[in-house]
Design brief:
The protein has 97 residues and is an alpha+beta fold. It has one domain: 2-Layer Sandwich (SHC Adaptor Protein), CATH 3.30.505. It is 39% helix and 31% strand. The chain has a five-stranded antiparallel beta sheet, covered by helices on one side. A hairpin with a 5-residue loop joins β2 and β3. α1 crosses α2. The protein is globular and about 45 Å long.
Length: 97
């Protein structure tokens, strides 16, 4: 969120920075919520145990622990489309084409 200079003078530059940071965190949280939901929908079960942006394999990586304890990494592109997944018990990548 951008503030006018007048607004920043009234509430202080640090307050503007904190507010911008909070808005950025909220925005990132919403994106990771969407990515996490896409990963869970793709797998059909489990719980998200880790998230990562800028992964070497994709834009987003969502680690999901399945009900049986298996960990699966779901790869998503910038548009939050699933582009692949990999289980810790299976080293081959399963791409959805």
């Amino acid at each position: 969120m951008q503030h006018s200079r007048g607004t920043c003078r009234r509430i202080g530059k640090i307050d503007c920075w904190i507010q911008d940071l909070a808005n950025d965190v909220t925005c990132r949280s919403r994106v990771f919520d969407r990515a996490s939901n896409a990963a869970l929908d793709h797998l059909g079960e489990g719980r998200v145990t880790e998230t990562e942006v800028g992964d070497e394999e994709s834009y987003y990586e969502i680690e999901v622990t399945l009900d049986d304890g298996t960990q699966t990494d779901v790869q998503l592109d910038r548009s939050i489309n699933v582009v692949g997944s990999e289980s810790d018990t299976n080293d081959t990548e399963a791409n959805d084409d």
